[in-house]
DNA sequence: GTCTATATCTAGATAGAC
DNA sequence: GTCTATCTAGATATAGAC
């Protein structure tokens, strides 16, 4: 976060690589993938446009690193929410949906932008691994709610992710009117929807 | 659709404006908003890069026209699905969710790309009107299912759009594995989820 | 490890010919 | 209504100095 120090020139970063990932995430949230550029990230950090290429071979690998970091953070947020929710499996699963929404909203939509992007052509090991880890987390939560079969658990997870993802998309895209659209209110709706999906 | 005639040069279109909208939609579906460009659309139609500017003042207005057309088509698809579903309000609402998914999938994700974009800064009258019309369609369907209050109907619509939008996002982003992921299968899951939301 | 400078490319948009 | 030609701007990525 000391990345935002107003460095003009000749500044020496302690950890430019990490700063690039953070700043990229911010820029994605503010400007979207369309207006994201390596050069803009460099400017934001007060370094030359060449500097990022000392840490990432190209733009795609930088975005890949951002994506992996975001997926790891999201996974952690979901796990923490489930833990906080207590022992009831239904509460835990519903809380996971709320945490998903809350995390993405808190990051200003950066996460959503990343995953809406065509990042699937990258040799992005870290990202795929983190996505799998998130899936495992959710599958465990779903199974605990009493799904009879594995297939049933998978479909509950898919539906829950879909609804959480949908709420965050609509929120990020400005679908909801200004009033009655605090992050908490959207998260609460996602939680309620997740519960309905379990009962349905 | 005759836009894809392999015209090299000096070709005279009957309706370049409409062809531009169609080709833009295709390009968005294939390449995403990030790689969309007016120049690329022109190349696709075999016209000069200057030609589109005879029909649209700038890139944003072209995208706006695409967006409005897509919203109108989606609205029509939803209405048709509800009609086909028969008289039961629950069937009609669930069918709407399925139609949403099916339309977006059929267009290769072009619709999703458009709405995921930051198109909200445009003076896009047509698009806003079409979005409102879709909302009206869905509110009517929701009210018919027996929502006690207007607020309740609004929240049911929001949840249904969220889950449909979520499924299409995940589908477009390649979340689902190759197997068991025909469009119809995803649409069926959205339909089922919509029904669960009504009951929850 | 970062900078300056630069080569290369592509896009958006406009002017004027036909 | 479309084309050719062009201007401007900004991005990716590299080379070589410090």
Overall geometric form of chain A:
elongated
Main sheet characteristics of chain A: none
N-to-C CA distance of chain A:
44 Å
Summarize the amount of helix of chain A as a percent range: over 70%
Oligomer: homodimer
User: Strand share of the residues of chain A?
Assistant: under 5%
By DSSP (H or I, 4+ residues per run), the number of helices of chain A equals 8
- H/E series of chain A: HHHHHHHH
Mean pLDDT of chain A, rounded to whole units? 87
Low-confidence stretches of chain A: 1-9
DSSP summary, beta strand count of chain A: 0
Structural class of chain A: mainly alpha
Computed over alpha carbons, the radius of gyration of chain A is 18 Å
Task: Give the largest interface.
Answer: A-B, 34 and 35 residues
Key features of this structure:
homodimer; about 200 residues; mainly alpha; elongated; disordered N terminus; DNA-binding
Itemize the secondary structure elements and their pairings:
Two copies of one chain form a homodimer.
Chain A: H1 16-35, H2 38-45, H3 59-85, H4 89-106, H5 110-116, H6 125-144, H7 150-172, H8 183-199
Helix pairs in contact in A: 1-2, 1-3, 1-5, 3-4, 3-6, 4-6, 4-7, 4-8, 6-7, 7-8
Chain A binds a DNA duplex (18 and 18 nucleotides) through helix 2.
């Amino acid at each position: 976060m000391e990345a935002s120090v107003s460095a003009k020139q000749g500044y020496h970063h302690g950890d430019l690589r990490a700063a690039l990932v953070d700043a990229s995430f911010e820029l994605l949230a503010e400007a979207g993938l369309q207006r994201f550029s390596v050069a803009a990230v460099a400017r934001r950090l007060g370094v030359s446009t060449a500097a990022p290429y000392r840490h990432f071979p190209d733009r795609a690998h930088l975005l890949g690193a951002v994506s992996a970091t975001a997926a790891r953070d999201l996974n952690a947020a979901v796990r923490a929410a489930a833990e906080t929710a207590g022992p009831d499996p239904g509460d835990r699963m519903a809380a996971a949906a709320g945490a998903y929404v809350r995390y993405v909203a808190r990051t200003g939509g950066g996460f959503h932008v990343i995953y809406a992007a065509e990042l699937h052509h990258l040799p992005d090991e870290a990202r795929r691994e983190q996505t799998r880890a998130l899936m495992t987390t959710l599958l465990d939560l779903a199974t605990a709610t009493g799904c009879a079969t594995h297939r049933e658990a998978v479909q509950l997870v898919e539906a829950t992710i879909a609804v959480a993802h949908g709420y965050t998309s609509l929120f990020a895209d400005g679908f909801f009117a200004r009033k009655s659209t605090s992050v908490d209110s959207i998260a609460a709706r996602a939680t309620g929807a997740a519960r309905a999906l379990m009962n349905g």
